Amino acid sequence: MKRNVPLMIALLGGLLMIIQYFIPHQASQDVFNYYTEWAPLVGAFALILGVGSITRVHVHKIRARAPNWPYSYAVLLPLYLMPVFGLMLPVIMGGGTDGPGFFDFMYSRVQIPIQATMFSMLAFYIASAAFRAFRAKSALATVLLVTAIVVMLAQVPIGDLLGRWLPDTGLWILRFPNLAAKRAIELGVGFGMLATCLKIIFGVERGWLGGAGE
Amino acid sequence: MTNRWEKMLNIDRRWLYLLIAIVVIVPFFIRMGLPVVPTQEVRSVYDLVDSLGPDDAIFIGWDFDPGTEAENMPMGVAVLRHAFARHVPVFITAVSPLGQGLAEQGVASVFDTRVPGNFVYVPWAEWESVREAGYVGRDSLESAWEAAGNPLPEGARGWVFEGVDYAHLGYLPYFSLVILGMGTSIANQYPTDAYGNNLHDMPMLQAHKNLREVDLAVTLAGSSACMWWILYGTSRVGLPVAFGVTAVMATDYFPYIQSGQVVGMMGGLRGAAEYEVLETEGGYTETTGKAYRGMDVQSLAHILIILLVILGNIAYFAGGFHKKTALKSRR
Fold first, then answer.
1. Among A210, B124, B156, B269, which is most buried by a count of CB atoms within 10 Å?
2. Contacts of residue B180 in chain A, CB cutoff 8 Å?
3. A183–chain B Cβ distance below 8 A for any pair
4. What value of ipTM does the predicted structure carry?
């Protein structure tokens, strides 16, 4: 029962959505609209499960004094404080989502700078990695290296100053060899997704059941 | 001789970090103003926005997080400025809560009237009296608003009336489903805007009820979220979509431009700078913006990295390390 009911729901739901796509009728459109209104509601329950799950994992880590357990407080405190300050506390107590307040402070003075900093550090690591690892060790590696240099120069105005042929060559690489390779990869991924979807709908792939009914 | 090359290859990485820090900081103080030549991919986006007017509408999806703000934000600001200058109604959405906050920051930079050439924002509630007198069109609204004792501040480029020129729809979860739903009705997905105003009452929602009545969606993305607009917008209701993506991602989407599924693409900071150049050439802005300024930094950083790659290879081969199995590592 625990296995067959979800499998039947996946089969019926999957087939219904495939069939309705090819039927240009109001009734078919109504089914589709009904689904798009319901799906976020189902997702909202997944959010409850997610918050519950992450809370349980980190509370367990703190209780067990597992390695790096103090960091669990860094997960749990913002997880609960941000909604409390943003949605529950009145503005006079530093609540609300608009500034100035705790929520706005944490968002614009902590979260945004942290994320931007993490990404910005890539420039330093790329420079170091390129110096140490980007070697013309073989013919293919040399092609990759030369291509990378041409595309990098083509992406910046200095490339235009060195000669119009440079950005033109860079764009040619992006528009033709790159496009051909990407299209092949995308087609492969697309067919893979199609096969996986059909396997889920027809119950061949059952990993998503999470072992229910075993 | 070998020792010198080995020493060079094993240089303390902090020297490399210092070099990068210098080349990204110095150009902010010493402007180079290198020329940026727009590509066809960016020109296509610009031309489409430039062909629209008050009867049309576009979506700008703030579909990125702070990590890629440096690249995506200038694109959004440039397209927003262009659309406002042409009185093209703009719907703003976000695929994440962080994106909604960033959208507010981007829009605020265009509404900052301390900066010449910006726009004056008139919130929905503020022009209620004019609305109650009977809204019959944007031109008459502007005249009525100014006649009611609201002169356009000196240096400002124009008015932006919320509900007519601009609606901030904000963030909704499961955005792929939201795009699907907007194919039928925008207001059903977003009964209110990000500030709690009823969208059903807004003139721009009455003129553009669903995505079939929208002329372009520009998605500014630092992830594959941009594909949702293609999968659920273009393929389902024929919505024209343009991409504004990071330089790293841009290579992935050339197949979609060639197939015609994507109108055009702004790739990385360069794409944003190209859009700014086109706007300046078109007379929509006096000067180029942050992206154009950032191209000096990017030019020097790319040159430095290329030099480092070349130096690394010279040391590698001149030192004969290609014949050995490994370098002594003190990295």
1. B269
2. 32, 36
3. yes
4. 0.84
